[in-house]
Amino acid sequence: MTDAPGLEAYARNYLDEAKAALDEPTILAAVHRIVPILLKARDEGRAVFFFGNGGSASTASHFVVDIAKSAIRGKGRSIRCIGLSDNIPSMTAWANDADYSRIFAEPLKNLAVSGDVVVAISGSGNSPNVLEAVRVARALGITTIGLTGIGGGKLKEMVDVALVVPSNSMQHTEDVHVAVLHLLTAYLRDEGPVSER
C-alpha cells in the first residue's frame, strides 16, 4: 500500500468544507422555492430544460435521468425533462455555424414555450452560453432556476430562483449541486403531492 502523506487531514478538511456549504441556510431556502416550481411543472405537463458546461453539463444530464425516471407520483405522471447539453451534434453545429454562446439558446427557442421551466447550471455563474439561454428563456416567459456558486456571477441576478453555493471552490460547488439534485429527486418521488391526473 502506498503511503499518502497528509491525506487524512486533507480529506477531513475537504469534507468539513463541503458539509459547511451544504449546511448554509440559503441552500434550503432555495430548495423551498424550487420544489413548488417543479411540482407545478409536473402537474401541468410542462417541460423542464437542463443545461450547463463541463461538470455542470454532466450534472444537468444527471438531473434529467434522475428526475424524469424517479420523480413519478400518482397515475404515472412524471416531469418532462430535456437535457440541452446532451445533444452533441446540435451543440457543435451551433458552435461552428453561429457562435458557442448560442448552443443552448437556439434549441431552447425551438423547443420551449411559455410556462416551461429552465434549470441553468454554471459553477461560476458567468458561462456565456448559459447566460444567453437564460435571456432567451426570460423573453419566452419561462420560469428560470439557476444553480451556481463562487459568488453567483451574473446568473444569480438573471434567474427567478438562484441557488448559490457559498464556496469559492468549484469542487464544493459541484458537490452541493449533485446533493441538491438527489434531494429534489427523492422529495419529488417520496413526499411530493400525488397528482390525480
Essential attributes:
197 residues, alpha/beta, Rossmann fold, five-stranded parallel beta sheet
Task: Characterise this structure.
This protein has about 200 residues and is of the alpha/beta class. The protein has one domain (about 15-190): Glucose-6-phosphate isomerase like protein, domain 1 (Rossmann fold, 3-Layer(aba) Sandwich). Helices cover about 55% and strands about 15% of the residues. The chain is built from eight helices and five strands. A five-stranded parallel sheet has the order 2-1-3-4-5, with helices on both faces. Strand 3, helix 6 (about 130-140) and strand 4 (about 145-150) form a beta-alpha-beta unit. Helix 1 (about 5-25) packs across helix 8 (about 170-190). The longest helix is centred in the last third of the chain and has 21 residues, at about 170-190. The chain is globular, with a radius of gyration of 17 Å. The termini are far apart. The model has no long low-confidence stretch (mean pLDDT about 90).
